[in-house]
Amino acid sequence: MYDVVIIGAGVSGAAAARALSGYNLDICVVEKEEDVCCGTSKANSAIVHAGYDAKPGSLMAKLNVRGNQMMAQVAKELDVPFRRCGSLVVCREGEDTEMLKKLYEQGIANGVEGMKILDREEALSCEPNLSDDVVAALWAPSAGIVCPFLLNIAYAENACENGVEFRFNTEVEEIEKLENGYRLVTEDGSLEAKVVVNAAGVHADRFHNMVSSKKIHITQRRGEYCLLDKTAGNLVSHTIFQLPGKYGKGVLVSPTVHGNLLIGPTAIDQEDKEAAATTQEGLSEVLRKSAMSVKNIPVRQVITSFAGLRAHEDGGEFIIQELEDAKGFVDCAGIESPGLASSPAVGEYVKEIVAGILKPEKKSDYQAARKGILDPKTLSVEERNALIRENPAYGNIICRCEKVTEGEILDAVHRPIPATSLDGVKRRTRAGMGRCQSGFCSPRVMEILAGEFNVDLSLITKCGGDSRLIVGKNKELKSENQDG
Question: Residue 472: pLDDT band by 50, 70, 90 thresholds?
Fold first, then answer.
């Protein structure tokens, strides 16, 4: 029996695992996909929200502001890129400027510092490419941007280095109450735990409802995005929001920590918990609405589009608590935006709840720091040449768009939580995230993966499961053997 089993290896589950790994506890994270960061956490706006949007007094507001305050230190400890670029909520001609004042007042109530309402000239001095009908904006200097993949992976790697076990391709099918804990039934057998942390994203309501008579309901809210090439990355310097509506903060325009430009998302409620495909209607809406706040967006520089699902609980609030009628079962549910910004505080909050249940001792050898994959582009010419002499793999460029070397890919394969697929390598190294979207580098990355895992090339997948990229090879081999 484990002390704690966490369901879900997204940013909330991984943050909770990292926080709890500071205790002498036997912890396991179970994830139905082949890697961390395969759900909501891989497809979002990458924004560290300031905290003015959430209702004052709500848990969402508390954890958003606390997470924002923690993010710089967490990013430093985990060696993750983070930039406090600030944000603007723009108000256009004909829109209600009172909404800006309301957001400002909410931010003050929530403890957000440094906010200011700007007139048009002040806003244009910050962002010259704002649309011509912008009349005012709310400035929040504490907002920032982060890499959601690397943050999620870093939480998980640091937890793993501190003794947390991760089980992938392990889907929980049933949860049974035991006298002193729970049994989680999977296709690969059962696990037992004294405490279960339910961080299953859009599936969290299903697991909650297995053990509690007080039901919750999560709606899958699809958000579609367009990512533009780095040639468009300097169009704006801050994250530009529109006035929020019924379904959230609207379509944003934002730089990314890697130098691209991101626009989106839409907000469409749907029934299917797995339907994260883009649509022509959704992407057209992203392009149309983004132009309402920022002009001259070079839409011909779009290099990819994607969609993610946000876990919207009917109450519109984070649910992080031990269930009254299911002791030892801790929900971490309804974690939609600003979930990424809140993640350090979410992990901390879950830790406090679980520690209150199990009363564990703190580890004397806990390591809060984690070192990321070495990027030769950050080195001086002399340092890079010395590195290549020591390890020639760092002189072999595999991904030409992002200048990713064989050495970085090999490092990704041999991390505490290894990359085992093309997408796993992409999230860790950015190989395949450039303008050609892996058109040139994917065959070489596949060869490296096959060689390191000593498997046939046909077994390498895009994202685990049945997502093989080479098809028909086995039939061809069988035919050749029969002819022979």
Answer: confident
